[in-house]
Amino acid sequence: MESQSVKAAAPHQRPSPFLGALALGGLLVLGALLSSCAGSASLALRPDGSMSLGVDATIPGPLAAKLRKLASLPDTAPLFDVEAARRAASGRSRLRSFTIGAPGPDAYTARIEASSLAELLAEPELAQSGALGLASGPGWKELSLRLARGGVEPLLGLAPGLDRDLLEALSPPALDPEPISRAEYRTMLKGIIGEKALASLDGASCRIVIEVPGKILSSAGGRLEGRTLTATLPLLDLMVLENPVDLRIRWASN
């Protein structure tokens, strides 16, 4: 398993375009979930305003194989440049800790601790995108996540080592305000990555979990259980964002 001490990627390595194409989740404050992966992101907020974020992502096998062919990579070349992500994180003083690993050539994990979620949301890319919001009022706080077509492109700045050529070839509609339907994009994508890889993408989803430190006052966009809001989003829907994604959770605070 590769970790923070992983060697820099070989010069010919071109990380998966999905490492940046789906920045769809300002939840991934370091671009950790900018990936076309079956995976999850779990964000836990604490009473003092600090936070922890865990990301686990795996690119489905047939899709990973196709991406390597598109990028002219060897069959076993890693698709995630963990060293580039580690270097990018080291320059962000608001992080308390950051660990990253690659359990396999198609997988990626990250664990992030920050003293203040509010300060992280002030990062230029996140602030410009408007993807994540933190609001408060008398006796309450609220976290919101909104992902809308054309509004997530600023988050690409959080994705180190993004292969712009592959990203342009795949052209996820989520990055473009011009209208294109999910069905239209799926047809286009089939011609680029093939039917087998597309089938694996059809079955992939991203699970977003948000845990807050107080009694829940209201929520929207996911399944609420205790103090946790969970949303499972089909990956292809996230790539297109034909309909915006809106998650919101409000809790009682002192």
How would you portray this structure in words?
- With 254 residues, the protein is an alpha+beta fold.
- It has one domain (18-252).
- It has helices at residues 18-21, 61-70, 82-90, 117-120, 124-129, 164-170, 182-193, 195-202, 235-240, and strands at residues 38-45, 51-58, 95-101, 107-114, 132-137, 140-147, 205-211, 216-220, 223-225, 228-234, 245-252.
- Strands 3-4-2-1-7-10-9 form a seven-stranded mixed β-sheet.
- α2 crosses α8 and α7 (182-193) packs across α8 (195-202).
- It is globular.
**Sheet of most strands:** 7 strands, mixed
Strand portion: 25-35%
Distance between the termini: 43 Å
Major sheet: arrangement of strands: 3-4-2-1-7-10-9
What is the global morphology?
globular
What is the N-to-C order of secondary-structure elements (H for helix, E for strand)? HEEHHEEHHEEHHHEEEEHE
CA-atom Rg in angstroms: 18 Å
Average pLDDT number: 76
Number of helices: 9
Helix share of residues?
25-40%
Task: State the total count of DSSP E strands.
Answer: 11
**Tally of distinct domains:** 1
Low-confidence stretches: 1-36
Class inferred from helices and paired strands: alpha+beta
